[in-house]
UniProtKB/TrEMBL annotation:
PANTHER family: 2-HACID_DH_C DOMAIN-CONTAINING PROTEIN, D-ISOMER SPECIFIC 2-HYDROXYACID DEHYDROGENASE NAD-BINDING DOMAIN-CONTAINING PROTEIN
UniProt xrefs under CDD domains: 2-Hacid_dh_1
Name of protein: D-2-hydroxyacid dehydrogenase
Gene3D superfamilies assigned: NAD(P)-binding Rossmann-like Domain
Single GO MF annotation: NAD binding
Entry keyword annotation includes Manganese: no
Record keyword Signal present: no
Pfam family, one: 2-Hacid_dh_C
SUPFAM superfamilies: Formate/glycerate dehydrogenase catalytic domain-like, NAD(P)-binding Rossmann-fold domains
Keywords assigned by UniProt, alphabetized: NAD, Oxidoreductase
Organism: Thermophilibacter immobilis
Limits of the D-isomer specific 2-hydroxyacid dehydrogenase NAD-binding domain: 101-276
């Protein structure tokens, strides 16, 4: 079995990965420099090759992504016939949840205004702030990332409700786990809404004018799932009217955000360029390696893969 790895692994991480398939032949290449013959020889690719280059593979059995998201690879004809697709869900919980919490707390404590004041050499009090303590936090997407975020929010004294595909008993830091059908009741009660939802036909455009109008005045919104959850014009209207106190956005629609887009300068907005789920925290890449090693072992044993993406 030939395994082509497109991730920037250390020597120790390579050794951990290779223990998952001790009989396999491993090769390593930067994603931007991968050669056609490497793709042609690969039975397994670990990483995120350009989707259009998958046509250069000849006998691909598994594409093990280094990302939790996989929508770029779902178009008809992108994945070669017979190849399995697996994501890296479970690798990004710590990184994304900490990033989003930092963004929200920064907004709630007026830190962007104080940063602007520092640059202008202005010593001024920017007034009242908000707190997570006692806040009602609604988490859209109660998987690995949402669960991590719930734990952090609860540690600050928030009361956390999760929304997922199917209702279930409360677990971890979630007081309740409900479905999207409950949103009309839940939104007016929320002080903070944080979304980690993927892009699906059911989630695209979910956060529209009706969604934002249902939120209480002065609430906060965060999105680190996919930008197309949000109808951006409706978000802008809610921010400009003062109905929303602010929005922490690691993803946007459109993305990348054009240089002249009004969202850059909208009141109460903090934007980061889809970096919360990058490889900026060492533990994230360690987690990806562990998932990939496990799936290499499962593939060799003919077992069902972890994080298998099925149509």
């Amino acid at each position: 079995m030939n395994v082509l790895v497109l991730l920037p692994l250390s020597g120790a991480q390579r050794a951990r990965l290779e223990r998952g398939a001790p009989k396999a032949r491993f090769s390593y290449a930067p994603n931007r420099d991968v050669a056609p013959d490497q793709l042609a020889a690969a039975d397994v690719i670990v990483g995120n090759p350009a989707p259009e280059r998958l046509g250069e593979t000849h006998h691909l059995r598994l594409l093990q992504l280094g990302s939790a998201g996989y929508d770029r690879y779902l178009s008809t004809g992108t994945l070669p016939a017979g190849a399995q697709l697996a994501g890296a869900s479970g690798a990004y919980g710590q990184a994304v949840s900490e990033h989003v919490l930092a963004m929200l707390l920064g907004l709630m404590k007026n830190l962007p205004a104080y940063r602007d004041n520092q640059r202008a050499h202005v010593w001024a009090d920017e007034g009242p702030v908000s707190t997570m303590s006692g806040a009602r936090v609604l988490v859209l997407g109660a998987g690995d990332i949402g669960t991590h975020f719930a734990r952090l929010a609860a540690a600050l004294g928030a009361r956390v409700t999760g929304v997922q595909r199917h209702a279930s008993a409360a677990r971890g830091s979630f007081e309740e786990l409900l479905t999207r059908g409950e949103l009309p009741r839940l939104l007016p009660e929320a002080d903070v809404v944080a979304s980690f939802l993927p892009s699906t036909p059911e989630t695209r455009g979910l956060a529209d004018g009706e969604f934002f109008s249902a939120l209480r005045t002065g609430s906060w919104f965060a999105n680190a799932g996919r930008g197309d959850l949000v109808v951006t014009d409706d978000l802008l209207a809610s921010l400009r009217s003062g109905h929303l106190a602010g929005a922490a956005l690691d993803v946007t629609d459109p993305e990348p955000l054009p240089v002249d887009h009004p969202l850059w300068d909208a009141p109460g907005v903090l934007v980061t360029p889809h970096v919360s789920g990058g490889l900026h925290l060492d533990v994230t890449l360690d987690n990806i390696v562990d998932i990939a090693a496990e799936n290499l072992a499962r593939l060799a044993a003919g077992e069902r893969l972890r994080n298998l993406v099925e149509p």
